[in-house]
Amino acid sequence: MTEQANNGAAAAQNGQGPQFALQRVYVRDLSFEAPKSPEIFRHDWNPAVSLDLNTRQKPLEGDFHEVVLTLSVTVKTGEETAFIAEVQQAGIFLIKGLDEATMSHTLGAFCPNILFPYARETLDSLVIRGTFPALMLAPVNFDALYAQELQRQQGGEAGSNSVQ
Predict the structure, then answer these.
(1) Could you state, in chain order, the average pLDDT of each consecutive group of 10 residues for the chain (164 residues)?
(2) To which H or E segment does residue 49 belong?
(3) Is 22 within 8 Å of 67 (Cβ atoms)?
(4) What pLDDT is attached to residue 130?
(5) Where in the cell is the protein located (predicted)?
(6) What's the predicted TM-score (pTM) here?
(7) Structural domains of the chain, with CATH
(8) Rounded Cα–Cα distance for residues 13 and 19 (Å)
(9) Could you give the dihedral angle defined by the CA atoms of residues 77, 78, 80 and 82, in that order, rounded to the nearest 10 degrees?
(10) Backbone dihedral angles phi then psi of residue 73, each to the nearest 5 degrees
(11) Helix, strand, coil % (nearest 5) of the chain?
């Protein structure tokens, strides 16, 4: 058993097995707007937070891929928009030696999971600079979101009569 594991590790080091490496994490785009300031600071703070997240990926040269995680937050207090903040947190990943299904899962769930803590910290920092309380977003289960998206796509392709 140990010999098989050693052979597998040697194959990966020689470029024969699957490879995954994070090359770079960076902010691709950043936006903050507080349309009702300074008046909003004089209202009672009773926030309603709306979070939208999206991921996209594109192949780069060779076995490199860019994955972009977008977090868009709108916070309202009452009927007034306190602020709108958005971050596009991106990463460049070296990924090779994976079958199509595993590659899809890696790009659609695993990579966004790596990027999320960076995006969350960037968003909190941005909001604090606007003198609002940090958002402290809860972790996101990208595996579950990926599975839901696959299920939605398969349902649509199969002509399912399910209500969405």
Answers:
(1) 45 71 98 95 92 96 97 95 98 96 96 98 96 94 94 70 35
(2) strand 47-59
(3) no
(4) 95
(5) Cytoplasm
(6) 0.82
(7) 18-140 (3.10.420.10)
(8) 9
(9) 0
(10) -120, 130
(11) 40, 35, 25
